[in-house]
Design brief:
The complex is a heterotrimer of chains A (352), B (286) and C (301). Chain A is of the alpha+beta class and 352 residues long. Helix content of chain A is 25%, strand content 34%. In chain A, the strands form four sheets. A six-stranded mixed beta sheet of chain A has the order 6-7-8-3-9-10, with helices on both faces. In chain A, strands 13-12-11-14-20 form a five-stranded antiparallel beta sheet. In chain A, α3 crosses α4. Chain A is elongated and about 75 Å long. With 286 residues, chain B is mainly alpha-helical. Chain B folds into two domains: 48 residues; 212 residues, MetI-like (MetI-like fold, Orthogonal Bundle), CATH 1.10.3720.10. Chain B is built from 13 helices and no strands. In chain B, α3 packs across α13 and α4 crosses α10. Chain C has a single domain, classed as Orthogonal Bundle (MetI-like fold), CATH 1.10.3720.10. Chain C has 13 helices and no strands. In chain C, α3 packs across α12. Chain C starts with 6 loop residues before the first helix and ends with a helix. Classes of the chains: A alpha+beta (352), B mainly alpha (286), C mainly alpha (301). Chains A and C meet through loops of A and α1 of C.
Chain lengths: 352, 286, 301
């Protein structure tokens, strides 16, 4: 298993800057998720690690050795593509064993190892079929099996679950995580779904416009996002970011509603800020707190999600208990001051 | 398929609403039209099988005979038929070997000036034969390639190579690059990937392209007329010789015409789907 | 790790290796002859004056002569007449048949294939077929008309009808082209607008006018352009049916070039004619290239 070091990576395509000065180290055996909105450069980064995309500037090193110019064939990296990229004219067995065939391994040995992996993944009965005859989930497993058989230094995943239906996605998530635990392999996983990232990764890298916004463990990102973008990106439903300004020891919205803070922040009075509070950190109170008007009530069974208006701004609150309320009624909510976040409105950076 | 159903459904609805009696009228109209339109063609084919004295008679009832074909056998025609076969196969084969890899590269490699190469190929495909015949005539005269099979085959490359590159580009574009990338990651070299992964996936397109090249080579008249005399004369030109030297023997003309058009019509049935592509050089939305 | 190779240069070398043979070959068999053609058009080269191969003393002599050559100017007019009429009817008939045959029954499917025959026949065969039709002594057409009491004189020997007789044969040969294109386009019309219109109560005629026609209009335009370019190449029909005659009534530019270059062996003059045709083709090809270009870019993006 390998460490991956990305130093000062730049990627330009014609006049577009896709990646702008990126530094990252991925440790041996680590599962790192690259997340971000569309166009943030996460897939490009992955493909650069694989060697499928050229690097305009900077260095990528595997186990300390610079691999910028090395062909994908020689990097000993396996990738699971978004659309699986199974060879349509070959059987599942041939697909699985292709890399071994390229290495010149004897046919008997190939068949043996293919049978082994097929059994682990539950593909044994499908070996003679062609990819076109498989379901989405089966194809996904074949793609993973192909990667496993490579015995590579690094596993790369390019949004492998986005073409599966929701239920299958949850199943496969667990399988991939289990695979990681079993093989203890270095895995880099690209996704736009932050839930996947949160549940699977050892560390998450949040990207926006080719720049790393924050790197950390899932809980680090959840508890202490470094800026408003990460705050709003991680967590579902997303964190409420209410706009207001500092007034003595709290934040006042433009409608005059007061949002409490735990400590006096080290900023100028009157500074415009974003007050961040997660939907699950509200409690309902009968007096005090913040006045809000109920918009839509969405009970999911396990919780109740309520879309509200706090003054002129929209917010979401999530409660574990069943709350009986109707659209149009007023509610008083108290945010947990210990868990409130404060961001500068203009730059988005964290203040507290 | 579903779109056709929709149109059919719509016009079917209209018919059902207003003209009960006309069900199947479309089929009947088609039948009649087909007969009318194809009648000149069918007439020639009939003439090939008529006994010589009745060859111009207006009757549809006659005892078919193979006399005309037998007469062809004895003449020079077979030689020219063989030349057609040889030249067409040669130019098709050459254009495939050289053009298929080029088409693949053009699909995958985004180099500056790519548009100009594509435009150049399009123009080549469109240029009138006379523009090439004069220089080739003079050059072949000088090089001694006049009236040779290889000389003609090379000249045919002016359009077969263009067809191959243009058509195969669209077929290669349908193969997702991710498949080739996956093969690279699996350790497969560039050209081995091309051979084991990409080519098998375009096999039908390859066959259709080959057939189209063959048809276009087979059908050529102008180049063969100018660039061949007796050795390398191809079938289309040989027929015309019947007109001029052997005094308009219509039976033989009809018979040779029927023979010459057979391979082409047969092949067309095979590549019907790709004719759109080949004839417009991909100039249509697809 | 296996041998460390520079991937970028590996790829580039592979691509060059695949592309170069074609480029080189194309240069040799298209650019060189094209240049030779232009060069020859600047000389008075002919069979009787082979020493004139490199006589560039008066490079534009052929072109000047062309401008004053009534036969040449006449050939252009003939070409335009023939091309426009022929292409117009090819498109109309092709369109009509495409609409008629656009259905799902197996018979229609067979009919669609059979209707292609005129287009895929070797052009010389088409010429011969119509030679038979147009030669009064042997033509079934003339014989049938005789039976009905109509004596028709040879259409191809009559200067007033010769060109149109050729046009008919040309239309017969090429209408399947438009038919094929339009059929392909009709199959790709998205189903939803059609269904929506029918639900809205539109008649078949209106559906055609407001939904189908706008969709296939670009196809018709491209078809017409293609056929126009191809029509400049018309040869076997004229060669077999009229040999440019009677007189020069059916002598199109291409044919005139042929006569100058290969009957009279005035290679220089013939080359100049060929260059003129080539320029016209180039312009039209450019237009087509532009029309089909957006799709290529979308496909390769």
């Amino acid at each position: 298993m390998a460490t991956i070091t990305l130093s000062n990576i730049h990627k330009r395509y014609e006049d577009n800057v896709i990646i702008n000065g990126l530094e990252l180290t991925i440790h041996e055996g680590e599962f790192v998720a690259l997340v971000g909105p569309s166009g943030c450069g996460k897939s490009t980064l992955l493909r650069m690690i694989a060697g499928l995309e050229s690097i305009t500037d900077g260095e990528i090193a595997l186990d300390g050795e610079i691999v910028n110019d090395i062909s994908p064939q020689d990097r000993n990296i396996a990738m699971v593509f978004q659309n699986y990229a199974l060879y349509p004219h070959m059987t599942v067995a041939e697909n699985l064993g292709f890399s071994l065939k390229m290495q010149g391994v004897a046919k008997l040995l190939i068949d043996e190892r293919v049978a082994q992996v097929a059994q682990t993944l539950g593909l044994s009965t499908l070996l003679k079929r062609k990819p076109g005859q498989l379901s989405g989930g089966q194809r996904q497993r074949v793609a993973m099996g192909r990667a496993i058989l490579r015995n590579p230094r690094v596993f790369l995943f390019d949004e492998p679950l986005s073409n599966l239906d929701a239920k299958l996605r949850v199943e496969m998530r667990t399988e991939i995580k289990a695979l990681h635990q079993r093989l203890n392999a270095t895995m880099v996983y690209v996704t736009h779904d932050q839930v996947e990232a949160m549940t699977m990764a050892d560390r998450i890298v949040v990207l926006k416009d080719g720049v790393i916004e924050q790197v950390g463990t899932p809980l680090e990102l959840y508890d202490r996002p470094r800026n408003a973008f990460v705050a709003g990106f991680i967590g579902s439903p997303s964190m409420n970011l209410l706009s207001g300004k500092i007034d003595r020891e709290s934040v006042v919205t433009d409608d005059g509603l007061r949002l409490p803070l735990a400590n006096v922040p080290a900023v100028v009075q009157g500074q415009r800020v974003l007050y961040g509070v997660r939907p699950e950190h509200f409690s309902q109170v009968s007096q005090g707190g913040v006045l809000a008007e109920v918009n839509v009530v969405e009970p999911t069974g396990a919780e109740t999600q309520i879309a509200l208006n706090i003054g002129n701004q929209k917010a979401i609150a999530v409660f574990r208990d069943r709350i009986q309320t109707k659209p149009g009624t007023e509610m008083r909510l108290l945010p947990d001051v210990q868990l409130a976040h404060l961001f500068d409105e203009r730059s988005g950076t964290r203040i507290n | 398929m579903s779109e056709k159903l929709a149109l059919e459904h719509v016009s079917g609805n209209v018919r059902r609403r207003k003209h009960f009696r006309l069900r199947g009228s479309r089929e009947v109209a088609t039948w009649l039209l087909l007969l009318a339109v194809l009648s000149p063609f069918l007439w020639m084919v009939l003439m090939a099988f008529r006994p010589a004295i009745e060859v111009f008679d207006l009757t549809l009832w006659f005892t078919p005979t193979l006399d005309a074909f037998r007469a062809l056998w004895q003449g020079n025609f077979l030689h020219s038929f063989g030349n057609s076969l040889l030249v067409s196969t040669l130019s098709t084969g050459l254009s495939l070997v050289i053009g298929v890899p080029a088409a693949w590269v053009l699909t995958r490699w985004q180099f500056p000036g790519r548009r100009y190469v594509a435009l150049w190929i399009l123009v080549t495909r469109m240029a009138p034969p006379i523009a090439f015949t004069i220089p080739f005539y003079l050059a072949w005269r000088w090089l001694g390639l006049q009236d040779t099979v290889i000389g003609l085959a090379i000249v045919y490359l002016t359009f077969t190579l263009a067809i191959v590159i243009w058509l195969m580009q669209t077929f290669f574009a349908a193969v997702p690059p991710a498949l080739e990338e996956a093969a690279w990651l699996d350790g497969c070299s560039i050209w081995r990937t091309f051979w084991t992964i990409t080519l098998p996936l375009v096999a039908p397109g390859l066959a259709a392209t080959a057939i189209l090249c063959f048809i276009f080579s087979w059908n050529d008249f102008f180049y063969a007329l100018i660039l061949t005399r007796t050795q390398a004369v191809t079938a289309p030109v040989a027929i015309v010789n019947f007109l001029q030297y052997e005094g308009w023997e219509w039976s033989k003309i009809a018979a040779s015409g029927t023979l010459v058009m057979l391979p082409v019509v047969a092949f067309t049935l095979l590549v019907r789907r790709y004719l759109v592509h080949g004839l417009t050089a991909g100039g249509l939305k697809d | 790790m296996k041998g460390k190779t520079n991937w970028r240069s590996q790829q580039r070398n592979a691509w060059l290796a695949g592309l170069m043979p074609s480029i080189i070959l194309l240069v040799v068999i298209t650019l060189l002859p094209a240049m030779a053609l232009v060069i020859t058009s600047l000389t008075p080269l002919s069979l009787t004056n082979p020493q004139e191969t490199f006589n560039f003393s008066d490079p534009l002599i052929n072109y000047r002569q062309l401008l004053e050559d009534p036969r040449f100017l006449n050939s252009i007019i003939t070409q335009i007449k023939l091309s426009l009429v022929s292409v117009l009817f090819q498109v109309i008939i092709g369109l009509g048949l495409a609409l008629l045959l656009n259905g799902t029954s197996a018979w229609l499917h067979t009919a669609r294939t059979l209707f292609l025959i005129p287009m895929v026949l070797p052009p010389i065969i088409v010429a011969l077929i119509w030679k038979i039709i147009y030669t009064p002594d042997i033509s079934p057409l003339h014989q049938v008309l005789e039976l009905w009491g109509i004596t028709l004189n040879s259409l191809i020997a009559n200067p007033a009808t010769a060109l149109w007789a050729i046009a008919v044969a040309d239309i017969w040969q090429w209408f399947p082209f438009t038919m094929l294109m339009v059929l392909a386009a009709l199959q790709m019309i998205p189903r939803d607008p059609l269904e929506a219109a029918s639900l809205d109560g539109a008649s078949a005629r209106n559906i055609f006018r407001y939904i189908v026609l706008p969709y296939i209009k670009p196809v018709l335009v491209v078809c017409a352009l293609f056929r126009l370019i191809d029509s400049f190449k018309a040869f076997p029909l004229i060669y077999i049916l009229t040999d440019g005659g009677p007189g020069t009534v059916t002598e199109v530019t291409n044919y005139y070039g042929f006569i100058q270059a290969f009957n009279f062996s005035y290679w220089g003059y013939g080359s100049a004619i060929a260059v003129v045709i080539l320029v016209g083709v180039f312009v039209l090809s450019y237009i087509i290239g532009k029309a089909g270009w957006s799709d290529e870019r979308k496909a390769s993006a």
